[in-house]
Amino acid sequence: MDTVETLALTLGAGWAAGLNLYAAVFMLGYMGATGNVDLPPGLEILSDPMVMTAAGIMYCVEFFADKTPGVDTGWDAIHTFIRIPAGAMLAAGAVSGLGVSEAAEFAAFLVGGTMAASSHLTKTGSRILINTSPEPVTNWTASVAEDVAVIGGLWAALHYPIAFLVLLGVFLLLVIWLLPKIWRALKRLLHRIRTFFSGRKNASPPAGGSRKDILKSLYHDAGGKPKE
């Protein structure tokens, strides 16, 4: 693999792991096992039948969990601690055994983890907002689109690395623009949830009345009989 191909695989593996780790592992392993691509030495283990079987089973589990509103949010929360480290390891594996220095491997580890974090956080935040919609079609559509993006993205990274790097650059610009908006929307959503469960109402006390009159009114509303 030349420098551009290695760079595309390094960034692509980290990015794909943040969206769907098991699809990424299975896709890379399948392409390596069938001879479609020559995986770098650090990723050849993905072609092992045991690894592919485990990734395939977990992908089937995630396929249904990721398309169930509410369940997908819990699944994503748990996988915050799985996808990001795994993305870093896949990126490091993409350069391992190619004669690069340990510093280069560690740099790939950091970059891969960052790519996985960016795609994972964007996915998780957008899914929480999508789940506020009462109909499930949007959730299913988003999940299928993510699966297609992972499979198609890794295929492009291995066969058309320059085109993939351009599209990945567009994705990163979109993330930079989108994440602050998602964060603000999530803050508003959490505020509404806290307000709902606290039972508070957006009502102000009656205008023009003394403190004593206001307290008497509140006591009366609670079912008491204030003393005159």
UniProtKB/TrEMBL annotation:
Domain of life: Bacteria
Renumbered residue ranges of the record's region Disordered: 201-228
Residue ranges with Basic and acidic residues bias: 210-228
Keyword Phosphoprotein: no
Keyword Kinase: no
Keywords attached to this entry: Membrane, Transmembrane, Transmembrane helix
Domain DUF4126: 7-181
Stored InterPro entries: DUF4126 (IPR025196)
Entry's transmembrane regions: 12-33, 158-179
Pfam family, one: DUF4126
Protein name: DUF4126 domain-containing protein
Species of origin: endosymbiont of Escarpia spicata
